[in-house]
Amino acid sequence: MENRPNGKERVLLLVLALAVAFPFLGSFGLLEPDEGRFAQIGREMAASGDFLIPRLNGIEQFYKPPLVYWISAVGVRLFGVSEWTARLPSALAFVGIIWLVGWMGWRVGGRKVGWMAALILASMVEPYALGRQITLDMSLTFWVTAALACLVEVGLIGRGRGWGYLFFFCMGMGFLAKGPMAWVVPLSAAWLWGWSARRSGGKLTLPWKSGMALTFALALSWFVLVCLKYPELWKYFLGYELVERFASTTHGRSKPWWFFLPILAIGTVPWTGFLLGLGAAGWRKLKDRSMTSMQWALGGAIVIPFMVVSCSGSKLLTYILPIYPALALALAMGLKRGVGGVWEKLGWGMALTLLGLVGPGLWAVRHFWSEAEVAVPSAMYLGGATGLAVILIFAWWIKVRKGDVLVKVGWVAGLAFLLWHGASGEMQRINDLLGRQASVCSLARLVEKRMPARLFIYRARASGFIFTLDRKVWISRGDADVVVDVSEEAKSRLFEKPDDLRRGLGVGERVEGVTLREVFREEFDSKRWEILGRAGEFYLVRSWGLGN
Questions:
Q1: pTM for the full model?
Q2: Which residue among 318, 339, 360 closes a domain?
């Protein structure tokens, strides 16, 4: 009989996923630069009804493919405008990822592996955090995970043309969510699964020719349509967004080759301690030549994409998100078999230690970071996190540590969920510590009380300012991301220097806007401009018109 969760277990998996993804989803303002940007593009798409051309502040944007904008726009039309609605695409994607990882675990290792994989993935700090922000990477990861789930069905059944076509469909949709990474993870897994199957006399049956045609048709559909309307975009997409992003430092995100190693170590908390044991077990299997086709596929879905993004000239911490589902599944399979010895002690010890240090660690930050003295989590959270961790860790040593491995995974994951949910509820309090990632919602609320004649954003990625105010603003040419010729109305709101904003306004008319703290010091005359508020590295500033 095949390993498949029954109806009740499927519902329970869904309940778990919803309980992880949705609490506190709209409890803090949109973070910059990505949340504000993506949310506002979806809002403008919903308002205009033009689902082909994304726009930000009335200016055409071709920064990324449109799938997340489409979902966001539909959410706005169904549920209205809010931070909760803006984050809905990522939350739904996170729910789907948790459920699919549980399903795959069930298929390859039974009930215990399924539940452990879902719990491990859901409690990892990076997937949890990004599942609560509107990012393209979370939607991309959903389609990557769905493609892997289809591959598992094809590999286990040994047939199933429908699952094969669905595999290629998911890769095409993943490309529309963000881009080429949607192909790297599934194709690496499929290639190694097929290679391993052939070595043992088997075969991985995928409709490669017609399937890849389907993938390309879906992936390129929007790009072809917009390039037919704006032919100059061919060079932009192929050169600037594809080749230069990977092969150069043009995008200003150059990092050393080892950049993703500490990101992975932090992103997998509280399960970081098991990574070395997983690597050691994989190395032993390589030497013994005892790896199964499924294990080869999981290794390919983790190692090859990790190496690809590590070689890229552009690096952001979100780039490795698509490997986390395969990593969670590999960890669950390893824990079921029993890590054993020093690796198991290291894994559980680090998990409990890391969770136990959350409260004291956040409390101690104020002693070596001056800004944290006034922007710090509440005493209730710090005390509660510390006390809860102590109680549950003590209970672990008394009752849990010698119990079933699923119970131990659930215990650690449950503690992590409580800590992460509590931290989500504290985000507004620590906003000023987030620097250029801080929300500018509070600054927009100040503006709402006395709406000035002219609003602007200068040398700052702060689209959440537009989202909150629902009003077009003046923007510096360098920040406008103009790729194609824009409308005359949009051109009239582009400017070069701060004093340009004061021209054309009467002496009694105000101009207010957002800039960065360091930019204010460098380019704004403090005798003509005053600071009204601050959020992270952002200043809200004001001046008066020059008169006619």
A1: 0.94
A2: 339
